[in-house]
Amino acid sequence: MTRARRHLAALAVAGALGHLAACAGDEARGLCETLADPPEAVGAPVEIRVVNEGTETVFIREVYGCTHKWFELKAGEDLVDAEPDGCDTCKEVLEESHCGRCSVVACLGLNFVGIAPGATFTVAWPGVTYESVEWPAECNYDADACAAHPPTSCVTPRAAAGAYTVRIVQAFAPTGCPEGACTCPPGQDTCTFATDTYDTFTDLSAPLELPGDTVLEFRLH
Q: pLDDT 10s per residue in the chain (221 long)?
């Protein structure tokens, strides 16, 4: 986030909290402020690399449709939110006052990454997870607008720690790309595109220990 965007975000939070000041006590206002602007969660950054060791382009698919989330994180059998959806964070709930409703983005198909022979696709994950917390009704400063769909929870960042499993999805023979062939342009090692058509896929998983591991590689052929 740029300095200007951080400044605007801070002003948005301050403005929302200003509205709260007129209708909530110090205790409620302090709770809302803590939820919306929690202490910075500093995780142990990890590079998740997908390396193409073969002679043909390989593909990975987003783990969930229309999300651009290229990996899934689990602690044991429990899913862990490694990247929040756009309006799930407590800060977004307060800033936007969207009352738990995200704007709908058109989905043009599953998103894929093509990786040319010898190339590497890297996801830089900051080592931060998000956990759900209760969003108090007192924090809905625009009560009238939120009456039909009041938010009851939001997610807040935490530094990741412990044993995890990372899953990616390798896809095979995607077709039907808008530009024709589902290949990267000449001279481009990786590229993204969307299509609903492909032959099959396979799940690939690897362990991750935090803090400690800084790089996790998947080597495809």
A: 444 444 434 444 444 444 444 344 556 667 777 877 777 788 999 999 999 999 999 999 999 877 789 999 999 999 999 988 766 788 777 776 555 555 555 666 789 999 999 999 999 999 999 988 888 877 776 656 566 667 778 888 899 999 999 999 999 989 888 766 788 888 899 999 888 888 899 999 999 999 999 999 999 98
How crowded is residue 61: how many other Cβ atoms within 10 Å of its Cβ?
20
Q: How far is CA 104 from CA 8, 64, 108, in A?
A: 23, 16, 12
| CA–CA gap between residue 25 and residue 27 (Å, rounded) | 5
Two tokens, residue 73: 């994180």
pTM of the model: 0.79
